[in-house]
Sequence to fold (334 residues):
Amino acid sequence: MLLVSPGQFGVNLFFVLSGFLITGLLLDSRARPDYYKRFYIRRALRILPAYYAILLFLVATRLTSGSFLLMSLLYCSNLSLLFGISMSYAVLWSLAVEEHFYLAWPLAVRQISTPVLMGIAAGIIVLSPLMRLLCYWHTVKINITGDGCFYYTWNTADGLACGALLSIAVRKFRSSRRRLLQLSLIFFALAGLLALLGWPYGITTRKTAIGAALQWTPWNFAFTGLLGLFLLAGTSRWRSYVAPPLLLFFGRISYGLYLVHILFFHAYDRLLPRIAPQSFLSLGTWGALWTRFVIAGAAGVACAYLSRRFFEEPFLRLKGRFSASSNRTMLEAN
Fold:
């Protein structure tokens, strides 16, 4: 379990990537007269079909409570704890955070100057850990267990802000690969320093005040630095090494895979004792873990591929009516 536990921070990577990509799209189109219309229609075509399909599936199978489904319908599943509702299909919480980002950030990018935007992003990076610390103290005071309030939008916005800050910096450093390299290394250094200093004080677990506030922060910084390095490599002769076909494949199906993967692991856990022979059930801890991962994971990948090709693609093709602006960063060598 120790080997797979870092997988929980994949959502942090998702937020950093999203903050970078969405901010780039907004900055590159901020002068367009159809700025808002274009952004929201394109986002709706990308996200809503698969999202509401999974909600319909949850309704049909009664895998979640009606109150949680209502919260999810309104893209507020991450705020469920505020109303005493458990997150019975937990993967939806990050999509709620993403939608809140879509509501607020386009207006900020359109109306606020770039230097002030950088200041706002930096401020969010500082304030979010403080909000998580207040959340921790509150849950300790009222003796609530669980991580529910850590998923509130204001407690998780720093990953998005890191990506947004990098996106702004990339455009500012458009003609300087060296400055982007320096910025990426600074993020890596901050990640390592924070992890090292926080280790004796419990940064590895959210059961301590330091961990509750800062456990996610080194990961956000490290992913931001890694993204910067990938941008540099992706605009050089090393592009094939950072964009292999397998990675591109998973990038194409990642949204659908994120939505459905937990269903297949739940199905595997429920069906295996009923259909598997006893010899299969005695594989040992590692054998059972890897068998579960391969079978349920492969089924999830297959489902996500079919969803992308036959369900999501028709909607995505409609995006062509709203002229795409490239988010690819063109960095010239000095």
Observations:
- The first helix runs from residue 10 to 29.
- The chain has one domain: 8-245.
- Confidence is low (pLDDT under 50) at residues 324-334.
- Residues 8-245 form one domain.
